[in-house]
Amino acid sequence: MIYLKKTLFTTLVILASPAILANDLVLYDMTKKEPFTVNTQYPTYIENEGVDKLFDTSLQSKYISKYSQSWVSIQFERPKRVYEYVLTSALDAPKRDPKNWVLFGSNEGESWYELDKRNNITFSTRGQSLKFQVSDSRSFSRFKLDMKQEGTTVWGDSYLQLANFALISDTHLPIADFSVSQSVTTINQPIDIYANVANDPSKLIWSIPGATLFEAGNKAKAYFSKPGSYSVSLQAINTFGEDRVIRNNVIKVLDKSKPWVGHTTPKVKVVIEDSESAGAKRLLRLFPNIAQTIDRVTRDLAPLLYKNFAELPDFEQVTFTLKWMDTIAYRAGDDTNMEIAFSSKYITEKLAGKPDEDVRYELLGVLWHELTHGYQHFPKSVGYDDAGAHAFIEGMADLIRIQAGFHKTRSPKPSLSYLGGYTNTGFFLYWLSKEHNNFAYRFNKTAIELEKWRFDKAIKHVTGKDVDLLWTEYQQSLNSM
C-alpha cells in the first residue's frame, strides 16, 4: 500500500486495493460521461427550460414543451447498447408528466427501431426517478424518446415536461464514485471517504482543497482546520483509461460557537436586457451596485430560514436579470444557479408616481421575496399546482419579507381561507411565528421532514394544533383590531 500525503495541498495518490474487483458488467450513464448532441421536435418554449436541461446535473431544472406530445433525440459518437434508461419527473405540475412513450434507436437517423414502449405510467412523487429495462441487444449511436402527456393543469395548459433523461450502457472504464461517512462535521473531527470504483482500478487520486488526508485501502480520512464548504475530487485509473468525479461543497465543516463562519455567498451575475426604459434607469440609479445588494440580503435572509450555513442550499451563482416583461418578478434556475428576474415594465408603469424612497423599499421587498424562493425548501410529494404547496411557497416568502420589515405597504385582511398565498398566508404565518419559537425555520423544514406533505399537517407538526382552529383565532384577532 503506497500513498502520498500532502497536508493542505489537496492531493492523495493511492494504489488501489485488490478488494475492488471488476464486475462482469458495469453500467454507467452515457449522458454524463460521453460527448453527444441533442435535438427536439419543437424549439425551446420557455427560456432556460430547453432540451439541454434533461441532461444537466440538477433535478430542479426541467425541459418543457408547449405541446402535449414531443420527441427528444440524442446522438453519440459511436454505437452503444442501452440496457436501461431513467426518466425523472419535474418538481411541479404532475399533469405535465409524460404518461406514454416509446424509446427508439437508429444509426443513420432515417430508420428508427423500437427499443421499449410504455403506457399509462404514473410518477407518484415530484423529482421521482423511474428506471426501465431495455431487452433489445442491438447497439445504436442515436436514440429518440417520443413522449406524450395526458392531462390539463390547474392553469389550463397541456404542456409536456420532464426533469432528466438518462441512458445506461456498459463500460470497461473505472467509473469513479465515492461516499462520505457524514456530510457535516466540526473542526478537526475526521470524515471518512469511501471509494466505490468498479472495473479494477489500479490507482486512485483524491483531491480535497484545504484538507489533511490519510489513506487506508480504499478509504481516505480527511481533517479540516477551518469552517467552510469543501469539494472532493476522485480520479480512478485502469488499463482502459480513467474517470473522474467532482462533487462541490459535499462536506461542510462547522464551528458550533459561530454557525455562520465559513458561509460563502454565491457570486452574483447581473444581466441588463433593458437599460433604456424609465424603470430600468430608475432601478439602476437606486441600486448602483445590485450585486452587493443581493449579497447583503442573502446574508441577512439565511439565518431566518436556517440554523447554520451547512443547512443552506448551495448555489454557485445568482443571476439577476432586468428585463421588460409583464410579470413583476420571478425566481427560476436550478440548484447551482439561482435566476431572479425583475420587470422594468412594472417599475416604469406601476411605480412611476412614487417617490424614490418608496420605490426602493418596494423593490427590496420583492428581492427578499424572490431570494427566499431560492433558499426555501419545496415539498417533494406535491406540485406547485397543489393549493397547499402554493400557499406554503408564497406564504413563506412573504413571511420572511414581513420579518425583514418590508411589509409596510401591505396589511392583513379578513379572508375565508389560509390558502391564498402571498400576504394572505404570509401574515397568518407571521401571526403564528409570534406564538411559536423558530416558526419559520421549523415550518420550512416540514417540506423535507414530512413524507406526505400537506399544509394542514405541516402546521400541526409545528404548532400541535389544527390549522382550522388557528385560522379562526387569527381571523377573530383581525376583526377585533
From TrEMBL:
Residues 1-22 form the signal peptide. Gene3D superfamilies: Galactose-binding domain-like (2.60.120.260). Keywords: Signal. It holds the Pfam family BSP. The keyword Ribosomal protein does not apply. This is PKD domain-containing protein. It comes from Pseudoalteromonas citrea.
